[in-house]
Design a protein that fits this description.
Length: 215
């Protein structure tokens, strides 16, 4: 078997160090999953939702893509990976929360900004990040200079809000929200600081999540 060495070492460590204390957990979830929360996150290897939220196996239903984007509801075409995951989470699993998790130094957001300059960013990446073209162009059209780092961070957070808006275009999401069965959340994670900010939907501000010492 041609398994990458780091993966086989990790698997063996999982079996040797963790399986005994997790065996009961795996047996309990073997037949069905019942996560309360779906996280739509970025494919970036540095931003793992299960790690950030210290979630046990089976606690989060996660879909990851470039820049944690949610497309609007539409029925044309045949490739709807993110939409299919949302439908399964809401209709089949009846999740109570959906969290759109953006992050700092996001390559997908950087690609969207480069695309505005006419730079080639990839055959499949370019149409995907065009999902946030409206917010990107509005940001770039703002008067006055803007620091590139601040511009990147602003678009990262605007993309989260765009995705939340797109979620509401799915009829089954809207129905679940209206019935009080589902709540939509936005969040942004700083890789450099390992800090999480949560979106206040009323003010549009991403507020830092406080860490309280429970000892």
């Amino acid at each position: 078997m041609n398994i990458p060495p780091d993966l086989i070492v990790g698997y063996r460590r999982f079996r040797e160090e963790n399986l005994d204390r997790r065996a009961g957990r795996y047996r309990s979830i073997a037949r069905a999953q019942n996560p309360r929360t779906m996280v739509i996150g970025c494919a970036d290897s540095r931003v793992d939702p299960a790690t950030i939220f210290s979630a046990a196996t089976g606690e989060l239903f996660v879909v990851r893509n470039i820049a944690a984007l949610v497309p609007p509801f539409e029925e044309t075409g045949s490739c709807h990976g993110t939409s299919a995951a949302i439908e399964f989470a809401v209709v089949a699993l009846n999740v109570e929360n959906i969290v759109v998790l953006g992050h700092g130094m996001c390559g997908g957001i950087a690609a969207a900004l480069l695309s505005a300059k006419g730079q080639a960013i990839g055959r499949f990446i370019e149409p995907w990040v065009e999902l946030i073209a409206g917010s990107r162009d509005e940001l770039l059209d703002r008067p006055g200079p803007m620091d590139p780092v601040a511009r990147q961070k602003a678009l990262e957070r605007m993309a989260v809000q765009d995705s939340l808006q797109n979620l509401t275009t799915f009829p089954f999401v809207r129905d679940a929200v209206d019935a009080g069965h589902l709540v939509l959340h936005g969040a942004w994670f700083s890789i450099a600081d390992a800090e999480l900010r949560w979106l206040d939907r009323d003010t549009g501000v991403f507020e830092q999540v406080e860490i309280r010492n429970t000892n």
